C-alpha cells in the first residue's frame, strides 16, 4: 500500500443554514478544499461523499453523482460514491478515499461529508436519526437517540459513579473550545450551572448534554504522500485508517457503557500506526452526547474505565491539558451535521498539525487522532495523523 | 495493485418476498456466498453493502452494521460500509470490495446488495425511486423514472427510427432468458403482442417495457487472485473495475439518448483489461427499461448508435446469438431490487464463466462484462471478468 497524505481541507459554517441548500453546502466545502490544496478541479480523480439520510432529510439519494455534478466534476465523468453508516458516514468516506489512493487506483481523491437536517420538522428529524438504530428492535418501540445514550449514561453512572458535574464539564470544555472556532454552531462559553439547569431530555441527559441538529459540510483532499509536496508545504500524513462494527442494537452488547467497536478500531489504529497512546497529542472524539466523550476517551485506551470523568474535571482534556479532546468544540458546540462530522474531525486535526488552529491551537501538536461513531457504536472509524 | 478474483456468489429469489425481511434477505444471500466459497464467516475481513433507499423503503439506515450484525460478523468487529448510487449501489459495493483487496488493506471481502421495495405503497416507492433523479430540478415537478426513460426513448426514436417491435424484442428476449433462471421474478416467456398490448405507462413505454418493483439480495466474495485456489477450483478474475459520473439531471446532458457515463466507464474498462469489444462473450446490462438496453449496447461500443434495435431483432443479443445480453433475464424479467442488481449481474457472469448457468448457459463463455446504471445515467459502473 502507498502512503497517503491530506493536502487540502474545506469547511462550511455549521448551524441552521436556512439560505443554503444541501448541494450548495457540500459544493462550498469542496471548493474550499480544492482551493486550499491549490488544485484545479480537473486534477481530481475520484470522489466519496458521506451522508446519512438525504432520502429522509431532503428526499434525495444518488448523492455522489449530485455533488460531483454541482461541483463541476461530472464533465470529466469521475467516479463518485456515497458512503453511509449513520453519524460515521463522513469517516467512512474519508477511509474509502484513503484506501483508493493507497491501492494505486487513483492519485488525487476528495472525500466530503454533508447533512442538511433543518429542512424537515423536529419529529421527522428525530425519526430519521432513529434509522441509525435497529428499526425493528429499537426504533419501532419509540426509542430515540437521546434515550439510548441516556441508558448508556445510567449504566455508566451505576458502575463507575460519574458525577453530574463531571458530565457537565464535557459540555463546558467543548463550548470553551467552540467559542474559539469560527465555524462552530455555538460560539459561546457556558458554565456548569447552565448545563445542570438546562431542560431534561432523557434522564440523566439534559439539553446541554446533547449535540444539536445542524446543517453543514466538510471536505478533505488526499493524494500519495510522495506527490503531496507538489500541492502543499504542509501535508499531513495518514498514519492509520481503521473501522469496526458491533451489534446495531444496544441491548445486544456485552456491556452497554463500553463501545467495543471503539476498542477494536482504536487497537487496530495504534497497531497500524506503530504508536502508543502517549504519542497522541490531541484527539477529536464523537461527543454526540456528553457521556459519549467519557466512553470514547476510555475505550480508546487513554485511561482506565471509570477514570475519564475525573480527568475531564481536572482539566486533563482541556485545550491546555495533557490530552486536549475536541479542540473544534466537538459535536456538542461545533455542531453535528451527521454526514459531515467525521470529515470535520479530520479537518480539525489537520489544522492543528499545520499550526493553523488560531485561538484553539495546541502548541507543538505533532500527532492527532479522530474517532467517529455511527449510532450507539455499531460503527466506529478511527484515524491517526502525523505532521510531515 | 493486486489482482482480485471472485470466489463465491449467493442470490436470493427475486420477487415480492412478503415473508422475508430486509435483513433476512441480505443475510440469506451472504450465507449462500460464504457457503459457495467454502469459507467460515470468521475468515471475512471486511464487508460492503449496496443499498439505495433503506431510509425510505424500510425506515432503516446504518445498513452496513445491520447486515454485519445479523450475519454474525459483528462479533469479529469487521468493518462494514454501505455504498449508494441509486440503482448502481450494488455495483459500487462490488467495486469498493475490489479496491479494498487490490490495495492490500484486506484479503477476503464480501460485497452484498439488497433492496426491500414492497413494504411501502406504490406511490411511496415511486417517490423514493425519484430520489435517484434531481429532486430540486426533476422530482419536484412530478417527473418519475418511467417518464424520464420515456423521454430518452422518444428522443432516440426521433433520431434513429427504432420500431415498436425492436423495442419489444428486448423484453421478449429477456423473458426468454428469465424463464431459464431459477431466481427470476418472472419465469415465463412472453410474445411481442404481449408487450405491444400491455398498459401504456409513459409513451412510448408500456408496462412490459419496464422492470418491476422487487425484493431481493445478492452477494459476492472476493480475495487476492493468488489466494483464490485455497477456496475454489473455479475462481473468476476481475479484469477491470471502473465507474463514471454524469449530470444528475437528464436535461443537463449533451444528448439525452446517449449515456456518456457508460461510454466513459466502458472505455476505461476496456483499457484497464487490455481487451477489445470483440473479446467479450456475454454482457449483463442495466435494462431498467427496454430503451436502456438498446442505449447500453451502443454506448458500451458493441455497435454504432442506432444499430442495437436491428441487432436485437435479428437475434444478435439472444442466448444463442453472437453477443448474448442479459442471460439472467436482466432487470426486466429477473427483477430489479435496486441495491441488489449490480451484484446480481456479477453473480450471473460468474455462473456463466464457471459453466454453472444451466439452461441459460452460453457455450464456451470466457470473458463477460457488467454495466450497472444509477438514475438516468448519472452513475455507471462497469466490470469485466475472465475465466482463470
Automatic annotation (TrEMBL), chains A, B:
Domain of life: Archaea
Pfam family, one: Thiolase_C_1
Keyword line: Isoprene biosynthesis
Domain Thiolase C-terminal as annotated: residue spans: 243-387
UniProt GO MF annotations: acyltransferase activity, transferring groups other than amino-acyl groups
Coiled-coil blocks: none
Name listed for the protein in its UniProt record: Thiolase domain-containing protein
SUPFAM superfamilies assigned to the protein according to its UniProt record, in alphabetical order: Thiolase-like (SSF53901)
GO terms (BP aspect): isoprenoid biosynthetic process
Thiolase N-terminal domain span: 4-224
